[in-house]
Design brief:
The chain is an all-alpha fold. 58% of the residues lie in helices and 2% in strands.
Length: 178
């Protein structure tokens, strides 16, 4: 395996990882409490909430904003990776990557509620790859790094997500192992 290629792919996907990982961190910032409203606004589908209280506007908007800012920084330092044509990509692609990542998570959460899996409950492998698949699907009309890159990143993202969740379980941050 060409490690340089893999590192360049991870560098490209950094906005996605930032978007996916930022909502729990943003929840700890008291200045953002006014954005704590649930994305589903309390609406229900039958007896169940569409998403639940844990999917907030703070997490969605903050994650998209942070992903966009990371991408703008990447464009500034584009010479780091010749694999991704940063100079020809639109400045707003990072915001779209972040939105896709969080939309993938929202869609997965909606589906989990429909099949009665509680928030935080395990639904492997979808819990681990939802954000990566969402980012690729939403940005597909703008930029696609190709099938090998997509497969590498979905598998890698799933493995890293599972490992992080497992570590969180042992650190008593998560209730479930995966």
């Amino acid at each position: 395996m060409d490690w340089t290629y893999l590192l360049q792919l991870v560098w490209y996907f950094l906005p996605v990882y930032v978007a996916n990982g930022s909502p729990p961190l943003l929840a700890k910032l008291p200045l953002l409490d006014r954005w704590n409203a649930p994305v589903d606004l309390g609406r229900r589908c039958g007896k169940q909430r569409l998403l639940g209280d844990h999917k907030t506007w703070r997490g969605l908007l903050g994650g998209v904003l942070l992903a966009g800012l990371v991408f703008l920084a990447q464009q500034h330092y584009a010479s780091i990776t010749p694999l991704i044509p940063y100079g020809s990509l639109p400045w707003w692609l990072g915001f779209l990557l972040g939105f896709g990542a969080l939309l993938g998570d929202l869609v997965k959460s909606f589906l989990k509620r429909r099949i009665t899996i509680k928030p935080g409950g395990n639904w492997a492998p979808f819990d681990q790859i939802d954000y990566a698949v969402g980012a690729f699907l939403v940005t597909l009309p703008v930029y696609w790094p190709g099938l090998p890159a997509t497969l590498y990143l979905v598998v890698l993202s799933g493995a890293v997500s599972a490992a992080a969740h497992y570590l969180g379980y042992h650190l008593k941050v998560n209730e479930e192992r995966f």
